[in-house]
Amino acid sequence: MEAVSAPGASVDVGDMERVCKASSTPSEHREKDYPVAAEEEVESASVTENSNSVEEEADMALDSVRSSSSTPSEATASTGRDSSSPATMMNGMKVVKLSIPGLELSVEDESFVCPNDSSSDEEDLVYPDNTQDNSDSDYCLPSSESDEDYNDEDYQPPLASVRRPSSAPKPTHRKAAQQSAPGLSHRRPGPAATPPTTPRKTGRSSLGTSPATKRGKSRLASTESEEEDRWHDREEECIKPDPLRFTPARIPGPTFDTTSAWSPISLFQLFFSTTVVREIIKNTNANAVKRKQAGVKFKWEVLTMKDFYIFLSVIVFTGLVTVHQRSDYWRKKWPYTFQFPSRHMTRDRFEAILWSLHLSDPKEDEENDKKKNTAEYDRLFKIKPLYTQMVNACKAHFQPHQNLSIDERMVASKARISFKQYMKDKPIKWGYKLFVLADSSIGYTWNFFVYSGKGESTTGRGLSYSSVMDLMPFRLLGSGYMLYTDNYYTSPALYNDLSKKNIGCCGTIRTNQLGFLKTQTNALPKKAERGDMRWIKSGKLLFVKWMDSREVTMCSTVHQAYSGQMVTRKVKEAGVWDTKSIPVPDSIVDYNRSMGGVDLSDALIGFYTVHHKTMKWYKTFFYHFMDIAIVNSFLLHKELFKLRQDPTQTKPYTHKTFREQLAKEMLEFGGGSADTELSKPPSTTCMPMFLEHDCRKYCKRCSDAGMSRVKTMTYCRKCTVPLCLTSKKNCFQLWHDGK
Questions:
Q1: Which is nearest to 590 in space by CA: 560, 629, 612?
Q2: Alpha-carbon gap, residue 593 to 598, rounded angstroms
Q3: How deeply is 226 buried, as exposed, middle or buried, from its count of CB atoms within 10 A (0-12, 13-18, 19+)?
Q4: 104-114 confidence digits (pLDDT tens)
């Protein structure tokens, strides 16, 4: 297309005619005359009230161009300028400029133009449609430029350019030169000032927000996020969460009748009920018959309730008095001259009961053994009767106080069985692992379960999560409890879920735990001083890092970071150790006070444990269940003393005294009389006596003479030595005569 020149203008005739025609035609007519196809696009821009005068000047310039010669030479002669001067070559196309006072229009072949009105009556700017405005990105539409400013009935649509399909390559768009009169500022149209006829594909946002503004807002949001997602110092205030509303399902403490008199054996029978004791007796008799049928040679008498409680009394006694071998309890030589248990149960009878002891039905055991390597096989079937009774009794007879703790417990064993565990950080490294929920204030074992190896998780979130949820029956507990856990259990997912159930949580946490904030902004330095701390919050979760002898990381849903508490530590300064008070987070103070509930229970069990080495794994659990029952009974005894204030008893039993009294009452319950037997004065004369239960023992004199297989039913009551006394042989006389 050829270019012509006019005074102050240089324009392509065809394009200029089309632009001016579009500027004088209403938008709805232009839509009809120039339908926009996929290759065409109509752009609209706003103009000021002076747009009519600008359009008249454009029409006059166009008429002058039309009146000139149609050839380049004639156009040059009429204008008095060289035709090569105003035309510019760019990408193989001619570009002309139209210069009109208040309007500068740059026209390229098949380019978009959009005239914008200036802030004055003397200046209007034309911007290419797809170029970015370099004005202030934070510009806001003044309140005076509202939609009402453009409701004039004489409003005319602004100039627009129409792109038609062409085979020529798409040229590079230019930015029009911006001219502004001195002291005048540019005014940009608001959202309502541009009534577009078709949706725009590129260019500035239809809401008047430039990309620079969006980037500015995103940078601001990013800055605010970084400000919140950082570790805070001790001096920065941390808002303390609202305290939990403690609403337990029952009144904390013993749940049975506290007005009645409860002896040690009556408390013990809350856990070893009459029903479960009878079932153990029945299964033990059945197992003894099975062993006899299998060819095992031993003397067996049917086990009764009396014999079983004497058997339990002996077991409690073995926890109070320790010897290297179990047979030493029945020895008569110094220093093993124990009057109990030999006066109430012989060693052979005790061993026979212990060998045949069985908690489950032997016939049902055989049915369960057939299911090995299947999903129906129960590894803990042999302890189920007593196991189930113990768990239910622990929860039924006591309501824990507000602070709870969960931890693992190891029951020592080196048996070759699949669910034996090894824990290097525990005092007992090899054995069976139990997950225990205990009352933090007194160490009462409230709930527990035996870990039997890998299996399907009840929650699908791993053992550390499911074990906590399994140990906390919320309907039986209530709400408002405070749970303390170590870093094996602590996770943001667990704490958030418990928080929704109104259960507060606090514990140490591993920094590689999923959900732990990874930001290092203002984090605790590696060589921080003792007492330095950092904290950060994420929803209800508070994470605290504190430097003691090493870095400690805590997570809590109920604490504030720091309230001014101090703790004393020994610090070495200038080669001298000195006691110094350092600040400590609130969560660590409460954690040290309340986390040891399970450890306290383990300590009480370990003081006078009845655990002994055995060849059967289920007997190990029988011993441990006895320990749990005795310790919980002792703790209930102390709680009852606080509630009743019995005037006949000035103070509660100690742990040792409670076990002694329990063993005595078990013996009396079995039909014996511990007081009369133990209070008998020692015999002063030698007299032959018969052994109880038609028992036979090896003759002492015959054994010394080399005949070790001679048994007798008589013994000397003073010397307590079995000696033969028959019509053919009188070792009793020969022994006392020194022969």
A1: 560
A2: 12
A3: exposed
A4: 444 444 444 44
